[in-house]
Fold:
Amino acid sequence: MHARIHNFNAGPAALPLPVLEEIKDSFLNFKESGMSITEVSHRSKWFDDVINDAIERTKRLLKLNDRYKVLFIQGGASMQFCMAPLNFLSDGRSADYINTGTWSAKAIKEAEIQNKPIKVAASSEDKNFCYIPENIPFNKDAVYVHLTSNNTIKGTQFESLPDTGHIPMVIDMSSDIMSRPVDMGDIGMIYAGAQKNIGPAGVCMVIIRQDLLDLVPDNIPSMLSYATFANKNSMFNTPPCFSIYTIALVLKWLEETIGGLEKMDMLNRKKASLLYDFIDNSDFYNATAEKGSRSLMNVTFRLPAAGLEKSFVEKAIDNGLGGLKGHRSVGGCRASIYNATGIDAINDLVSFMKLFEKNAG
Amino acid sequence: MHARIHNFNAGPAALPLPVLEEIKDSFLNFKESGMSITEVSHRSKWFDDVINDAIERTKRLLKLNDRYKVLFIQGGASMQFCMAPLNFLSDGRSADYINTGTWSAKAIKEAEIQNKPIKVAASSEDKNFCYIPENIPFNKDAVYVHLTSNNTIKGTQFESLPDTGHIPMVIDMSSDIMSRPVDMGDIGMIYAGAQKNIGPAGVCMVIIRQDLLDLVPDNIPSMLSYATFANKNSMFNTPPCFSIYTIALVLKWLEETIGGLEKMDMLNRKKASLLYDFIDNSDFYNATAEKGSRSLMNVTFRLPAAGLEKSFVEKAIDNGLGGLKGHRSVGGCRASIYNATGIDAINDLVSFMKLFEKNAG
Structure:
């Protein structure tokens, strides 16, 4: 049995090995505190340093100006589907949503369940979400435009952000945050469940601009208010300390080992090209997303038959390649190749795909 | 510097050393998966086994019948302050709250902010929350009675649960869950932030009875509905995997090393007696909670002067005794002696307290 496999899981997903090793090595005695990071008080200097390090690294990596605050909130992106309309649409005004698949649709549903008057400004449902809509006619009175920058399940990604005419964008970046530089120009808020590109499950990073914070009403429950988290540096109550600690280590690795988001982007493009080029040159494998809309993070593909796909996934595991099964809602295969997945993993995957095709022929 | 200190933190707090060692040892390769527990998919057999193990152990330890479901929800007890009234008071009916200090008061506030017509049936605010109210006149039409079984900050604890005349109790047990057996008779729901007695921060255990689940309305956001978590075995979205995994290990330690809640209760009583007896026999240290209302988990005490308290806390740290500072809202000193704090820690604390008194005299 392989000690460590190549992990192509969609999330929770691979983490950088040096990060895991550092957690392991200091697990019984964090920074000479005599305690595990899981035992240290969140009101201590030790944890203050951890959370502030995660915040400062986020600001540097994304080149955030002082109008943005970095928050850590529990409940994953799904909680943000609820919180964004609750916080920003308290006065009866509307927001635009772009529907590019499963997660966008869930965001829309959670706004509608609160009777918020949102509008779906564009959708790619007509072609089973295999592309990203363009030239979208936004409503000028929208408080924000919501979109999912990368669609984990459908394998599509916005190559560049849409022009909203300065309406603030609220972006679910769960599966591509920190994978490339971002032009923050018209971005009002980014949120990202950590468990794909920046850490373990159990925390959602929220980057919010002051003009959106100013919209938050007073009369909502404390734990559902962005103002609570902004005013208390995400420590109104006990935060998910271990998850935030791991994020800080992943961001340190991004800055100091990888060298920042430009470098990460180059690596990610190289990884995705290797895989898409191989698939495009094959008659056996078929990519499901349209060119121009393809995700650099989640490469979705089909084999000629469902039986072959099942056998492909099983044999891959035997060869130390895990997590290649497509999402249960769409079937097929999917290789999630987030930041922590190295080029060696892609090379091994392509070699295996060649061999599998040959043996199936 | 001590490799490991005696940790008297109020939460996050001490975890059993064998649990920390098991996490450390398997951190790079969980159950021969070739992945860290932080990298394993929540939709995998590996994680299913983890969450179901945590649930089954909870059911055995608390002797739950089939009417109860065990859920894991993010956001800590503070999120439960919001969710309980939202889920159970949708039809305009009322609930009774007992106010025994900071956390009870916060629970009341989060119900009131939602305009739920709750009533404070009893309060110990008249004596700075140093006692637990008795003979409480509950309102017969209350949907539930809310109480905080142990008051981490004030150092008080319900010695036994009040007689509500079969109105279901909703109990915040964050700081004494699994510290002693519980008569589930009239308990409709228990919730507990994990970071005191059962795990790391980042997850709240919720034990809910079917009749309360039946009250949950359809038209609330998915992540705020107990029904969502009950119907999806707490995996509507990605759960806080690492925190749940640690809970499973702590409960295993409770069952297999300690021997269950009766044994744990005996140990906890012995630990608390050692400390309270020493304090009661001293003219230098003064316990702040009234006899009969004293917490077995959080022993709060004062020294003759604030300056001495500051010096006490500092010298204690130098002697490998951490976390003895009282909550910032009340001052003084506090020794949190949860399940994972051994009797050796209490003995060392008492020895230090004797020495400190002698040197201060």
In short: Chain B has a mean pLDDT of 97. Chain B touches chain A through 70 residues (CB under 8 Å). The domain at 260-360 of chain B is CATH 3.90.1150.10 (Aspartate Aminotransferase, domain 1). DSSP finds ten helices and 14 strands in chain B.
